[in-house]
Design brief:
InterPro entries: VOMI, VOMI_sf. It comes from Folsomia candida (Springtail). This protein has 2 domains: 186 residues, Vitelline Membrane Outer Layer Protein I, subunit A, CATH 2.100.10.20; 160 residues, no CATH class. The longest helix is centred in the first third of the chain and has 54 residues. It is elongated. 19% of the residues lie in helices and 38% in strands. The strands form 4 sheets. Strands 16, 17, 18, 19, 20, 21, 22 and 23 form an 8-stranded mixed β-sheet that branches. Strands 1, 2, 3, 14 and 15 form a 5-stranded antiparallel β-sheet that branches. Strands 4, 5, 6, 7 and 8 form a 5-stranded antiparallel β-sheet that branches.
């Protein structure tokens, strides 16, 4: 009678022990799984944070992922879409300061028949100042370059810069070089986009006959290519060689030429009105030009640089704003004209506008405008720093006189800046002796 309860107690006791062991075993397994899960999650979160930091720092960024270009302050790196990725990345090589890529040359191994093909083996970029066509002084940059093949012809962006690239790559062929159809070649060709070519025009060099063109990679507005890095597979012996596989190019933001040119100013004669043979006053009409136009004094390379700037996204307002600040800071009281550029308004720093005006020269007198203006560029307003506008005006030349009218004009690189500041000189008849000098703003 006493045995059954003992057995029950024993069974109950034994069952509790078994249940406890099973629970502990399962708990330990769950704990290990939880720890593993937490470790994996932590690594994943750290990786996400690292990737976020890389992209937010601008180390590798794709233009289509950036909506607010105006807020961009860092350079970016373009990378070809990964089709194959054999080999190691070589070092980055950069253009010298103030220069940008404007040409390329490829090292290509010709078709090897039944032997191992590698196609593209190296890329060289040629760096020059923006707008220059003097490629004899260009600086060559390249990353890792493999041993096979020969350097081909050099192609140039004529008076332009490289603004992106496109790589031709062959997908993995799934075999070794011992079977021709399975021979891998990696990258086969390259296109570079040039700022001077319309509608996204490019230069192309196809080194190998295999593969397809990957998606174009382009710099942001106001940027050009300034560095290169390539992924290159070294010789693998009896294996399948592929040489160059991928490309990265760095895009650098160009400096606003309106901010960096060297500002000067001078008096520019508008009109000479001779009334020395008459005793009656003569009304003379002249063209007044106000604002900014391309300088006739600038060299071809300087004008080309201006074209590069506009081609890659520098608007007139950006260039003129930099020009206005440059004049105010560096030509506040000109030694040639005395004009205060600091006070100049937006009516000057815009596209030039020409108007017609008149002035009167009395009989038997002489008037002229001085070749030194005394203009205060520091006081120049935004009415000057815009596209030039031409209007018509008049002045009266008295009888027996000669009048010459001049205007204060600033020059800075590719820009000529026409102000509303004028000087009229009355000259002694038959001489260049100044009788009276008048400075005025109109």
């Amino acid at each position: 009678m006493m045995i059954k309860p003992r057995l029950k107690r024993f069974s109950l006791h034994f069952g509790i022990k078994l249940t406890h062991k099973r629970f502990r075993s399962r708990f330990l397994k769950l704990s290990k799984m939880s720890i593993y899960f937490l470790q994996t999650l932590t690594k994943f979160l750290l990786l996400c944070a690292l990737i976020t930091e890389i992209f937010s720092a601008g180390l590798i960024r794709h233009p289509e992922e950036i909506s607010d270009i105006s807020s961009l302050t860092t350079d970016i790196i373009l990378e070809s879409p990964i089709i194959t990725q054999w080999g190691e990345w070589g070092p980055f090589d950069y253009c010298p300061p103030g220069t940008y890529a404007a040409g390329m040359s490829l090292k290509v191994e010709p078709y090897q028949g039944d032997d191992d093909d590698t196609a593209l083996n190296g890329i060289k970029l040629l760096c020059i100042p923006p707008g220059s066509n003097n490629f004899s002084d260009s600086v060559e940059i390249s990353s890792s370059v493999n041993q096979w093949g020969f350097w081909g012809k050099t192609q140039y962006c004529d008076a332009g810069v490289v603004t992106g690239f496109q790589l031709k790559s062959e997908v993995y062929q799934g075999g070794s070089k011992r079977r021709i159809k399975d021979d891998d070649t990696g990258a086969n060709g390259l296109r570079i986009f040039c700022s001077n070519l319309p509608n996204g025009g490019y230069l192309e060099d196809v080194g190998g006959e295999w593969g397809d063109w990957t998606a174009p990679q382009k710099c942001l507005s106001q940027q050009a290519v300034c560095g290169i890095q390539t992924q290159d597979q070294e010789y693998v012996g009896s294996g399948d060689d592929t040489a160059l596989n991928n490309v990265r190019m760095k895009c650098c933001t160009l400096t606003n030429i309106g901010s960096t040119c060297d500002p000067t100013d001078h008096w520019e004669t508008i009109l000479e009105c001779d009334n020395t043979l008459s005793e009656s006053p003569l009304t003379c009409t002249y063209q007044k030009n106000r604002g900014i136009s391309r300088s006739s004094m600038a060299s071809e390379s300087v004008l080309n640089e201006h074209s590069v700037m506009t081609d890659i996204g520098f608007t007139s307002s950006l260039l003129y704003n930099g020009l206005s600040l440059n004049f105010a800071a560096n030509l506040s009281a000109s030694s040639a004209t005395g004009y205060s550029w600091r006070s100049e308004t937006s009516e000057t720093f815009h596209e030039s506008v020409t108007t017609t005006a008149e002035f009167v020269v009395p009989g038997c007198t002489k008037a002229s405008a001085s070749s030194a203006t005394g203009y205060s560029w520091r006081s120049e307003t935004s009415e000057t720093f815009h596209e030039s506008v031409t209007t018509t005006a008049e002045f009266v030349v008295p009888g027996c006189t000669k009048a010459r009218l001049s205007q204060a004009v600033g020059n800075c690189g590719a820009f000529s800046v026409y102000t509303n500041y004028f000087r009229k000189e009355d000259l002694l008849p038959g001489t260049n002796i100044v009788v009276e000098e008048t400075l005025f703003s109109d």
